[in-house]
Amino acid sequence: MTKRFLITLLVVVFSVSAAQGAASVESVGMTVSDMDRAVEFYSALTFQKISDVEVLGDEFEHLEGVFGARMRVVRMQLGNEYLDLTQYLAPPGRPIPADSRSNDLWFQHIAIVVRDMDQAFAKLRASKVQFVSTGPQTLPPSIKAAAGIKAFYFRDPDQHNLEIIYFPPGKGDPRWQEKTDKLFLGIDHTAIGISNTDASLKFYRDFLGLRKAGESENFGTEQEHLNQVFGAHLLITGMRSAAGPGVEFLEYLTPTDGRPRPADVHANDIVHCHTTIVTDDVDLLTKKLRDAHVGFISPGVVVMPKDKAGFSKGALVGDPDGHEVLLIQK
Q1: Other beta carbons within 10 Å of 77
Q2: DSSP string spanning 273-297?
Q3: How far is 328 from 279, CA to CA, in rounded Å?
Q4: Given pLDDT bands bounded at 50, 70 and 90, which one contains residue 49?
Q5: Where are the alpha helices (DSSP H) in the chain?
Q6: Among 19, 44, 48, 213, which residue's CB has the most CB atoms within a 10 Å radius?
Q7: Closest Cα partner for 240 from 186, 190, 288, 192?
Q8: Cβ-Cβ contacts under 8 Å for 226 (sequence gap 6 or more)
Q9: How confident is the model at residue 3 (pLDDT cuts 50, 70, 90)?
Q10: Looking at residue 22, what is its pLDDT?
Q11: How far, CA to CA in Å, does 137 sit from each of 61, 73, 107, 189, 316?
């Protein structure tokens, strides 16, 4: 479904000036099998439902690459960030592979910031969530960029990976240190499994205009138990835009047996996640992506009914590892 792409030096130089500063991350989306169950689950994490629509038609079929699509789309908000849930009423897709691991290249999660890790973990235990991590992990001083950060991986009812994360003073966005009684604060980033950091930087930085905000090399028993991957040694790169959650690259230096995303994944399959990025000229951006041989799911830019879609034009494309990015113009 998604072709790997080649970017020449000339294209990179030409695209940087046009892309940077023109795009921002609006939301993260995922496909679910049962919308009412998903809304109940995320509501327990204090997400608020702010819209609930049912859509169909040629525009949506072409945008998503799913013939005969009829979708229920619910937008949920936590803090200043948005999560878009989509249930395909027709045609339904396949479940997430039961043997999925954190180092497989279809891995994608959202990281939910919490005020207190012990309280948040107790709430998740009471809700009987499925663990990925053995328990909350505190990253050690040996990992300087991430020292003191606490994190825990778990799954939602559809087996999507999620993370709760606590930032100690001096780490993360300063707004996560603001005084509040809320336990769940917002979405800090979406993390994606990748095979090559340089290739992902060319796509997200040089074409989409995100900036590199930080880098960390994470390893050790805490990281292994967080990801539930023995021998986990990761190069982690944080990307940011002017607004919205960040995009975090997870490149496993070891082990190297993570599986590539299957070529036949479609947007109605439950493994599907996407990052929505707003640009002020989607036609120009998609032309540059075409010239760089980026894989398209949509046939091109699709003109959308703004009252139903929330945007006027859009295109769904794949990054170097097949993670889908929805490019929209308001």
Answers
A1: 17
A2: EEEEEEES-HHHHHHHHHHTT--BS
A3: 6
A4: very high
A5: 9-19, 35-44, 58-64, 117-126, 197-201, 221-227, 282-291, 306-309
A6: 19
A7: 190
A8: 133, 137, 151, 152, 153, 232
A9: very low
A10: 55
A11: 42, 34, 20, 18, 35
Does the CA dihedral 303-208-239-330 come out positive or negative? negative
Q: How far is CA 48 from the centre of its chain?
A: 19
CATH architecture, domain 9-95+266-329:
Roll (3.10)
Q: Name residue 233's beta-bridge partners.
A: 219, 254
SS3 label, residue 243: coil
Count of residues in the chain: 330
CB within 8 A of 71, min separation 6: which ones?
54, 55, 56, 60, 64, 86, 87, 88, 89
| CATH 3.10.180.10 domain span(s) along the chain | 9-95+266-329, 108-254
- In the numeric block, the tokens 């951006």 are attached to 285
Model confidence at 27: pLDDT above 50: yes
Superfamily of domain 108-254: 2,3-Dihydroxybiphenyl 1,2-Dioxygenase, domain 1 (3.10.180.10)
d(CA 310, CA 53): 11
Sign of CA pseudo-dihedral 227, 318, 81, 84: negative
- pLDDT tens, residue by residue, 89-142: 999 999 999 999 999 999 999 999 999 999 999 999 999 999 999 999 999 999
Statement: residue 245 has pLDDT above 90? yes
Residue 308 β-bridge partners? none
Q: How far apart are CA 205 and CA 78, in angstroms?
A: 26
The stretch 180-199 carries a mean pLDDT of 98
Q: What is the pTM of this model?
A: 0.92
- Cα–Cα distance, 250 to 234 (Å, whole number): 6
